[in-house]
Specification:
Blueprint (H helix, E strand, L loop, with lengths): L2 H10 L7 E2 L2 E2 L1 H10 L14 H9 L10 H20 L3 H6 L2 E2 L7 H10 L13 H19 L19 H13 L13 H13 L10 H7 L3 H17 L7 E6 L4 E6 L2 E11 L7 E11 L3 E2 L2 H14 L3 H4 L2 E7 L2 E6 L10 E4 L8 E2 L13 E3 L3 E3 L2 H8 L8 H8 L5 E14 L3 E3 L5 E3 L7 H10 L5
Parallel strand pairs: 3-7, 4-15, 6-13, 12-14
Antiparallel strand pairs: 1-2, 4-5, 5-6, 6-14, 7-11, 7-15, 8-10, 9-10, 11-12, 16-17
Length: about 475
Amino acid sequence: MFATEISTFYHKRNFALAWYDNGKVIEQAGNLTNRVLNLQNEGIKQIPPYKRILDSLFYNNDPQSSQPDVQLELMLTAQYFLFSKVAWGGMNDSVSTSVNWYVPRKKVSYGDYLDSLLKAPASQTRVKEPVYRQYELLRAYLRKYRELDMAESWPPIIYNARSRKLGDTSATVQIVKSRLYKFGDYSGDTTSHLFEPGLVNALKNFQNRYGLTSNGILDRATCLQLSVPLKKLIQQIIVNMERSRWLPVSITGDYISVNIPEFKMHVYHADSLLWSCDVVVGKSVHQTTVFYGEIKYVVFSPYWNVPPSIVSKEVIPGIKRNSDYLSKQNMEIIGHSDGLPVVRQKPGNINSLGLVKFLFPNSYNIYLHDTPSKYLFGESSRDFSHGCIRIKEPVKLAEFLLKDRPEWNAGTISQAMHSGKEKYITLKNKVPVFIAYFTAFIDRNNKINFRKDIYDRDNKLAATIISGNGNY
């Protein structure tokens, strides 16, 4: 196993030992051994091959001896390549594709990273690992939630109309306080039965972390989420640790990410989050695809070319009901294809794409765009579209994408959006876009967030992980 990688690694270093210094095992060897022998802490069910041999070789190694053990040396290198594959690289491409993940998988030379790891000075206790930053953050919460699960029973919290708001008093309130304290949302008196302002704030924190309406009330939805078994949350963390393994380690320059279950778009420069806004994504029958693209065009006052499926299911029946349907919808027929009229909606305030769209050419016909249906951004769950992504702050995005074009400012952008004439602007530099799917993630306040699995994708990936058959 990993014979080619091991041979290449030692050839590059002229077959010098890697895990010994002056005949003594280096600190990095102990760190690696600990993580390999405890793969469950990485959210991995697989048992490493030769686990007992590694355990015996490392912990029976004579620390006083100055004679390196070549068998331990080779075992450590082999186990490093195993660990890097399963913990940092993740399951093979067929697994990610089977769960509809079409973002290209990262490419990392783990042999080169091992060289960097071994060269790190002893005083440098942490070396940036070749894995997307969410992985390490989720790993810390995996440990915390497993400790909670071992220490606590977790009975469901039953909704009680008398225990839902400020000033109410009941035993349920005390149970909720205790649970929120364990989650890190509440820091007050956990023995009191009084619903006081501190609990209101704690509930808002919890509701924000779960994407619920942040009202500080112990409503049915909040009770339901507070009652989710810890084992279910642990499974959710493990599933999203696996997804984190698939993404690029880091990106330089500007890029955009959309997290579908979060209903959010995030704009970054390198690892710095610049701003975020709400989005509307595809409903379960018209799912937004998880993939990678590069924004190339900003289109002001766009036409909307109505998809054939919508023409057949909505436009034609509408025309049959009302001969003025097309004019009322500001649409026009511009041809025929495959027995259907080719319909487009003209630019304007009622255009389904709003006043601007952002194109990143792809085979899924998905893009970012404005919308006239602003009221949908007031919903906590925003899966309403036919697959494209509607953004709440399109003007801000246009200004961001065109920031290196001095002729495009707030005034000229507004004018182009309301001109009624379609205008394409080609970006000087294409901007990467990652359409991703994370139902558990760590926010910028280092708090874990959970979201509903709106496309029912967690269970399939969890089953593959739990099976323990690897697929690595």
